[in-house]
Amino acid sequence: MTPGARVAAAIEILDIIRTGAPAEAALTRWARGSRFAGSKDRAAVRDHVYDVLRRWRSCAALGGAEDGRSLMLGLLRGSDMDPAALFTGDGHAPNPLTDEEKTAGDAPQGVVAADLPDWLWPHWCDSLGAQAGAVAEVMRHRAPVMLRVNSARTTREDARKALQDQGVISRTSDVSPTALVVTEGARRVALSEAYASGLVELQDGASQALVDELSVPKGSAILDFCAGGGGKALAMAARFGAPVLAHDAIPARMKDLPARAARAGAQVEPVDIDTVRARAPFDLVLTDVPCSGSGAWRRAPEGKWTLTQARLDELNATQDAILDEAAALVGASGVLAYATCSVLECENVARVAAFLTRHRDWYLLRDRAWLPGSEGDGFFLALLAKRQQ
Ligand SMILES: C[S@@+](CC[C@H](N)C(=O)[O-])C[C@H]1O[C@@H](n2cnc3c(N)ncnc32)[C@H](O)[C@@H]1O
């Protein structure tokens, strides 16, 4: 496909997304119907679509409207590219710009330039203070591709060399002693021998740093209460060299976990809630709760536009309920770790404060927040413990 044809494909997909289709579904449907598109074409089209999703409001402002064609026009203008070079009408490229389109659009201002919804902006500013604008700007760009080196299998330097032999170039990150940032060949990671043999896993840097903050004595009982795909359960198993129980309210989310654990040589056992209760108490319970994902909107930018105040209230209630349920599973001298990939105060310190108000016999050991940037997503972690009687 020519660069222009890729832009035309992105326009078509954006118009489908505007009707309410999830981006992944729209991309998959397009790829199935476009057998002529090679892997580089599919990747380029996907990049266009996701770039617009991260910058929807500013693209609409710069393009003059909210249809797929105007959004792509806005994206190119916002990236200092000349749209006329791609909107040529040649082959499968989009038709040349009309006179109206050539003059349409305005420079985005304020919250439009920040590419956030109006209703969210006050929460964003209250949560991030002087950093609000800078963090919003970070969210308008692609996230780094990061790997966790499986310290149970190899060293970071050896993993880096093994990846390099397979065309994946990476650098070490200061965010965690296990973290690598892929600088070239990101699409080759999943096909590499280093990945297949469990030397590395795809995992964000802040997720790794969060696990680095956890510690347990040898022989401790460890539970990942909201395990999902199991990224943090695997990281804990590698860090502690110990078995980890993994639970999720939607067990199907853990379906790939046994294969991932086998690849990593990690002892992670998916269990149901009855088993969790039977095996309690635990020395460490991690609750990586469902959240707005506001710290990871570079990777899942639709979340920016689908979040509402009502959904945020609902998430806060779920977060409180999970904390209460998980607290009952922690032993007398154990630790409850509360984590979100959110930068919003109402999901972070406010939930911890509400928990401590409901549970007067608990206290905060420490908390830490990571802002999204070149070394990973935005994350929050609070470590809670029971007062000794
Ligand atoms: C942020 S995701 C977890 C991501 C995962 N820890 C990782 O590192 O890949 C939150 C998970 O919590 C699960 N969940 C939601 N409500 C829950 C509940 N009441 N009890 C346990 N898990 C729950 C969701 O199904 C979801 O998989």
UniProtKB/TrEMBL annotation:
S-adenosyl-L-methionine binds at residues 248, 272, 288. Its EC number is 2.1.1.-. It comes from the Bacteria. It holds the Pfam family Methyltr_RsmB-F. The active site is at residue 341. InterPro entries: MeTrfase_RsmB-F_NOP2_cat, MeTrfase_RsmB-F_NOP2_dom, RCMT, RsmB-like_ferredoxin, SAM-dependent_MTases_sf. The keyword Electron transport does not apply. One of its GO terms (molecular function) is methyltransferase activity. Keywords: Methyltransferase, RNA-binding, S-adenosyl-L-methionine, Transferase. It is an enzyme of class 2 (transferase). The keyword RNA-binding applies. Residues 135-389 form the SAM-dependent MTase RsmB/NOP-type domain. One of its GO terms (biological process) is methylation. Belongs to the class I-like SAM-binding methyltransferase superfamily. RsmB/NOP family. This is RsmB/NOP family class I SAM-dependent RNA methyltransferase.
